[in-house]
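Job type: complex structure
Entries:
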Amino acid sequence: MPAETNDSTIRTSIKPQALALGFYASMKRLWRRISEPIIESCIRLSGLVVVIFVFLIFLFLLRDSLSLFRHYPLTQFLFGHKWLPISDPPQFGVIPLLFGSVLVTLWAVLICVPLGVGSAMFIAEVAPKAIKNVLKSFVEILAAIPSVVLGFLGIIWLGPVLRDTFHLSTGMCGLTGSLLLAFMALPTIISISEDALTGVPRTYREAAYGLGATRWQTLWRVILPSASSGIVAAVMLGIGRVVGETMVVLMVTGNAPAIPTSILQPLRTLTATIAGEMGETVGGSEHYYALFAVGLVLFVITFIINFVADLFLRRARK
Amino acid sequence: MRLSRQAILAAVTAAMFAGCGESIDPNEPQGFIQAKGSDTMVNAIQMVSEEFMKEYTHIFVAVTGGGSGVGIASLINKTCDVATASREMKPKEIEIANKHGVNPKEIVVAFDGVAVIVNKNNPVNKLTIEDLHNIFTAKATNWKQFGGRNLHIVTLSREVSSGTHLYFKEEVIQLGKKDSRDEFSNDTLLLTSSQAIVEEVAGNEEAIGYLGMGYLSDRTKALKIAKSGEAYPPTIDNVLQKTYPLSRGLYAYTNGEPEGIVKRFIDFTLSPTGQKQFIETGFVPVRTSPGEEDAQSSPGGTVAR
């Protein structure tokens, strides 16, 4: 008896269920047909928005920088050796600032790339699992240190230490900035390189060991080259971080607008100039536009870095 | 316990209602004042505003630093009510202000000496303005020339947004001459705060820097400064008697004649309680009695230079 009733109830209830299912399926098909274009256009839009933003930022920078060159000759801006914004007449020579930025970045990269790629290799390939986890979380903590705190450490501790080690007249110099910037770029470089190294297929390793390669040979000649595109991307992102960093260099590099001949001298970077002077400028003044022009120079530099990184990545893929 | 909690609740509610009632009362001064500008003055103005808010509980005063230039720029951009400045507004700035429909009114709120500091181990005790000029324009680069050790001189300055920077530039770098083309030497370190100058001088025997008297402490040594004759240390008496050569006024600027709560704030700043805060932070009070005659004030747009 119970079985029969069960049967009948099932039989009767199947129909509406199937109907509902059929309806649901057709709706789903319909939705898929509509949703696909909607989602697609949403994604396309967000992609476009990024491009539009970059383009607008560029236009905005360009407009305000060009206002400077109505009063101030472009060649004097690009090749001028003196940055004297509040003198009468003012001089806006970007050369000392450009050299300052380039020098600090170059040294920071020299310091952080070998260190960063090296630790990524250790974390990804050599370290036992327990150490690996500890190291990875420490790298993450490193990334979370605010730049003001690092700048403060630079003034109080690192600057005086460097001054005494190298017998400098002041610890507020390019090297202090470079070291702190290298420290700030390390987490970016380590985590992205480490991802790239871990992403190398297991078969590569096995093939290398199978051919009788040692662990070092495998790491150096097989894994590192196969991960090279990711590592170059990591380095480029690190450089981007270093070039654009403001607070640390503003606090520790001394900001003297002389053309630096050595990393052990005080220097003034593009970013520190904008940050240090923007607050006092009146909207629409020559000084205000000059700072926008400095921003444009910075924008062009980062654009070139990204462009070069892209070229490298494409070459690596081939 | 429960009773007392209820009592507190009742009291708080009553206070809230009382507050509401008062804030509707048009006779009670209320509002928000934004005071912005000089880093030299920021501590003193902060203390003044705290005292002021104790007296006028319905007025809130926000005090920010950044440099005299920042304050003046934001007065022109109409983003602050009171601009504090450790220098006078430049004629060019007044011109720009007028163009923006702002009519700056100058009020002297205190006096200050710009102290020149060196490391405590530096044997040099006094310099002339001429010496300072030579040091900061890199015409002289060794402490030996001034009776010190055979050490390079590291010059420290504030950023260009600082009123003290501009004052020092006019009085020392250009020696008060308007047509002078002298500049701070390229190697001068431009630091973002007076505190950073204190830190560097305290730890560096080669360094020399300048800052408002309010930042003097026993971590650094203030030099005696001579214009032509005798050298004087930066003390309140010497600034008041104008014997210390690097003395200057500290100013507050408002858009037009101060009115309403801004006027109350300015009056309070010039009152004995307000002036006391300046003395406590190491500055020199204006001697005039508080109120109407704001010392040396002149109507906006025609500030005497």
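Summary: Residues 17-23, 288-305 of chain B have pLDDT under 50 and may be disordered. Chain B has ten helices and 13 strands.
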